Amino acid sequence: MSGRAGRVRVLRAGEAESEHRVHAVIVGHSPGEEIQFGDASRLAFWRSSFKPFQALPLVEDGVDEALGLGPRELALCAASHAGTPEHVRLAASILERAGLDASDLECGTHAPYDAGAARDVVRRGESYGPLHNNCSGKHAGMLALAVHHGWATGGYIERDHPVQVRIREGLAPWLDVDPEGVAWGRDGCGVPTAYLSLRQMARAYARLGRAAAAGEPAPAGIVGAMTAHPTLVSGSGRPTTLIMEATGGRVLAKEGAEGVFCAAAPREGWGVALKVVDGSGRAAPPALVAALDAAELLEPGELERLGELRSPPVLNVAGTEVGRLLPEMEPTPQAVAGGP
Asked: Is the pTM of this model over 0.90?
């Protein structure tokens, strides 16, 4: 039986205005160790929380060594970045090392998530380009993988392209299901994304973290890069960055669109995945922090540093606080056969 679904209430002047329902699951190191908040079998597209696994072939196939990609570049390949000048330069550098440029990107264009960066582009009289896309690092990495293997770069986002076939093959060891047997959709940036249960996502993150802690080169390379450079994975002041900064890199975190969020603690061996039912991105970070707090998985001081993320303010257009988000995550521990 599943545990009770969590929720994030939106309060204005102390009164309930709306709420977001949340399903989440935490899996531990020991077989069968699981804590549910709602339905762990809930299906969702993995969206950008899939990115660490999409980046693994860069290390597994030696692309990083061949092109001289260091931890900063690897972090960006697993990023949903804010489009700052630093993010843009790194993405362009990855492409240049592969003998390519921004015109080879098939991720599309949107304004930088960082408001200051977006204003600066307009102030200079320039236009937004694909390098500003939050997924440009991931796409640059995919193109680098194609060049490394001598595959065509055009159409690298398509499901039958060797790049995407290679990513699916590499995903198999992290799941309890055949990646070819699950549903796949097209992500916001155009590449395939898997439709998995929250349990499968959490188990994959737990396994990735444990493999990194054990020193396996590819997991250690990607996880180490992300936790060492959290602002490259997301951006200054953004939830993914704040979680990794507040925990000193003890926790790997990666958000996804439509209210998906995943995390892992490599040394402790646990993984977590959650989905906000209505897809609200604002509800996912407080729900994640509250779930980890309820499961007593945050160390002393970490919760205090994450206080504003656990219950963030609601601001009006003038920047005045007019309310708060209040997460309510009550766990129901339950053993599940097979464990993570």
From this structure: yes
